[in-house]
Each structure stands twice: as C-alpha cells, then as structure tokens.
From TrEMBL:
It comes from the Eukaryota. One of its GO terms (biological process) is DNA synthesis involved in DNA repair. One of its GO terms (molecular function) is DNA-directed DNA polymerase activity. InterPro entries: DNA_pol_delta_4. GO terms for cellular component: delta DNA polymerase complex. This is DNA polymerase delta subunit 4. Signal peptide: none annotated. Pfam families: DNA_pol_delta_4.
Length: 97
C-alpha cells in the first residue's frame, strides 16, 4: 500500500502527455443520410407512435395507424417507396450495448 506521501506525489508528478490526434478537414457523418433519413429518424425517436424495437418502420407505421395514432403520411410514402431503409435507426444502437 502506498503511503500518503507517495500518492500525493503521484498525482502532482509531471507526466508527459502524448500529443492529441489532429484531424485535418471535417468528418462526413452524413454518409447515407439525407433529408428522407432525417424524417424517418424523427419518426423513430417519436414515442407517440409506439415502440420501434423489434419491428420495421413500416410495421410500426401501420400499427400506429391502426391504433389511430395519426402517424405522418409522408413517412408512409417514404417507406412504401422502397428507396429508404426499413429498419429503425435504434436497432444499430442496441447491438452496441
């Protein structure tokens, strides 16, 4: 066990820190993310239409519609167009836990 003098010295010691990693330019976090995906992610995050885990976005929209929760019509149009991802944005986050 370290004495209190050693611990105090440990925390006040000058330790050389490595230089921070410097990135030149800006990261592009919008790969595969457009205004349609933004609308769908807003739908995913809105719990007024029920949970989105364990079902596709279209199934969730249909369930919300059948329950009279008035989900956005533009979301239905996007989902039925076949040009967007049908999986809820939260599905990827669950795999990280």
């Amino acid at each position: 066990m370290a004495s209190s003098g050693n611990v105090k010295g440990f925390f006040s010691a000058d330790v050389a820190q490595p230089a921070a990693l410097i990135s030149h330019g800006s990261p592009d976090f919008k790969d595969g993310y457009d205004e349609h995906e933004d609308v769908l992610r807003q739908f995913d995050m809105n719990m007024a239409y029920g949970p989105c885990v364990g079902m596709s976005r279209l199934v969730r929209w249909e369930c919300a519609h059948s329950l009279g929760l008035d989900p956005p019509k533009d979301v239905e149009g996007l989902l039925r167009s076949g040009k967007v991802h049908l999986d809820c944005a939260l599905v990827g986050w669950l795999h990280l836990a």
